[in-house]
């Protein structure tokens, strides 16, 4: 199993005032970067030879590279440390990657480690001036909640794409267990060759739902991604009609994440120091 880790390797322990500045700079860079990709980078990529699939592959590769560079900037500036366990098992054909969603930054870290990922994103982001360029160039799927969305997601998996979904649909409320919508399970049963859960923990909690970016924690935060064992969706398809199979798979996933996140909490409690 591949282990990518940057825990404890930050060049210095940044004081609170500096991390506030670095966090503000990170948000500014993210927004400016999205605009530059839309205005400068993707139009140039569009001039290169290749069919629609090739253009999409290039766009997703650029996004993954930019996200990796962004995470490295936040790491080098002392805002965060990160750890990704099992990164080598991400990005396989027809793979549905399901993850919990504790923080705004977890999406960036996850896609940074998948070279060619499709993703179901919130409808509101399609009109965001900083995000709409990358989203449309990468041909991500809008989370409209319609049957067309389910068909489009299943079709992407049938075509051999890797698809990332956050089944909660929004960030987890701190202190509460994740609540999964059944749509992700329905997509898995319709088109996934394998389902791979990714348990994400952020310690201390930050960038949570309804939390402003400037409310930074007392120490730099550590984000940990653990890629779980593959799940065969056909095992659930054989248990009954589609609604029953979807419910059973959703319940299985919910239990899995509750268990894995409890492991992360014990791991954090046993390894906690004043700063990572």
From TrEMBL:
Residues spanning the membrane: 20-45
Keyword annotations: Acyltransferase, Membrane, Transferase, Transmembrane, Transmembrane helix
GO molecular function terms listed in the Swiss-Prot or TrEMBL record: acyltransferase activity
Statement: the UniProt record of this protein carries the keyword Transferase: yes
Pathway the protein takes part in: Lipid metabolism
Pfam families, A to Z: Acyltransferase
Domain Phospholipid/glycerol acyltransferase: 95-203
Name under which the protein is recorded: 1-acyl-sn-glycerol-3-phosphate acyltransferase
Organism of origin: Pseudomonas aestuarii
């Amino acid at each position: 199993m591949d282990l990518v880790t940057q825990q404890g390797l930050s060049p210095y322990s940044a004081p609170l005032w500096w991390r506030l500045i670095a966090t503000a700079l990170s948000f500014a860079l993210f927004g400016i970067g999205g605009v530059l990709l839309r205005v400068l980078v993707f139009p140039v990529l569009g001039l290169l030879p290749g069919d629609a699939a090739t253009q999409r592959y290039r766009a997703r590769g650029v996004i993954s590279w930019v996200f990796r560079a962004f995470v490295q900037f936040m790491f080098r500036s002392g805002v965060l440390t990160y750890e990704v366990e099992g990164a080598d098992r991400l990005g396989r054909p027809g793979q549905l990657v399901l993850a919990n969603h504790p923080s705004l930054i977890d999406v960036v870290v996850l896609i940074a480690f998948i070279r060619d990922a499709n993703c179901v994103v919130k409808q509101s982001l399609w009109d965001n001036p900083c995000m709409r360029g990358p989203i449309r160039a990468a041909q991500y799927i809008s989370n409209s909640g319609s049957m067309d969305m389910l068909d489009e997601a299943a079709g992407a998996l049938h075509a051999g794409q890797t698809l990332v979904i956050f089944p909660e649909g929004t960030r987890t409320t701190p202190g509460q267990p994740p609540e999964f919508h059944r749509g992700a399970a329905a997509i898995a049963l319709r088109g996934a060759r394998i389902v791979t859960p990714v348990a994400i923990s952020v310690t201390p909690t930050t960038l949570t739902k309804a939390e402003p970016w400037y409310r930074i924690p007392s120490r730099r935060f550590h984000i940990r991604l653990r890629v779980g064992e593959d799940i065969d969706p056909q095992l659930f398809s054989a248990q009954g009609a589609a609604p029953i199979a979807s419910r059973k798979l959703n319940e299985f996933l919910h239990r899995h994440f509750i268990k894995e996140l409890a492991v992360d909490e014990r791991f954090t409690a046993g390894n906690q120091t004043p700063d990572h």
